[in-house]
Design brief:
This protein is of the alpha/beta class. It is built from 11 helices and 13 strands.
Length: 324
Amino acid sequence: MSREIVAVDIGGTNARFCRARIEAGSPPELGAIRKYKVADYPGLAEAWQHFLRDDGGEAPSAAIAALAGPIDRTPIKMTNSHWVVDPVALKAQMGLANLALVNDFEAIAYGVAALPHAELFSLFGPDNGLPEKGAISVIGPGTGLGVAIISMHPVGVRVLATEGGHVEFAPVDEYEDALLAQLRVRFGRVSTERVVSGPGLNALYQALGALAGGDAPEHSDAELWQQALGSDSGLARRALDQLCRSYGSVAGDLALAHGSKAVVLAGGLTGRMKDHPAFALFAERFAAKGRYRDLMMKMPIYYADHPEMGLFGAAAAAQVLVSD
């Protein structure tokens, strides 16, 4: 029997809302999607009220919100925005009988498990589909770097949220040692998401400029991504090349640490990069794991090819986490 909930996907930049119809054993069906800038609202409750006014439908009784940050402590502080969420107060503020909160990449992992195979775009390695048993790493750069694990079992699916984007960035050669030294001047401790993320392109661009002996011209993140993806040379393209290398290194390290049988990449940035010539550098670095090279070459790597993976994932998580 199907039921309707509201799915919410809260990132560091945007908050997305939609009504979704969910039914056990079937992929969620998403309704009209409304998007709001996180910076325009004091918190989730205010953005929720705006959604209800815009939506104009009957007030929902149940919702699930995927949040970009750890949700196992209260209050929940968003990693890349000013929002702070108190789960108990929020349920009352939103006027809901049932409210579930889930880590954003935990939700995306639920969505990956629910995706039809036709919406898994094969990037590298054999196109064998997702394993019926074992671990799958789900990874994606956005405002930060999201990481989750799917544990596939014959009797069902379990999802583990992680903060894998905050492990140390690990250089692999002397050039990256020098690059890391430049990044430390700016950040102190350098996590993987300082490099493998939307803002990471600008961080790499500035660091590469410093290594070349001069200051790089200032660009917004959006301007720099457009320049990097549209050029064949120059500092912006070199930064993109390095980001793709580092993305592959990080994904390979995580796959080894998770004992994964497959990797699924997600998010809009990967969607923009995956067809660019620079993305071949991802595959080179992913496989460059010494004695484990042959294992890495045989690991399927997919892209979760859904236009609203965050909302789809939140709705898929609701099938497990939101009661009737």
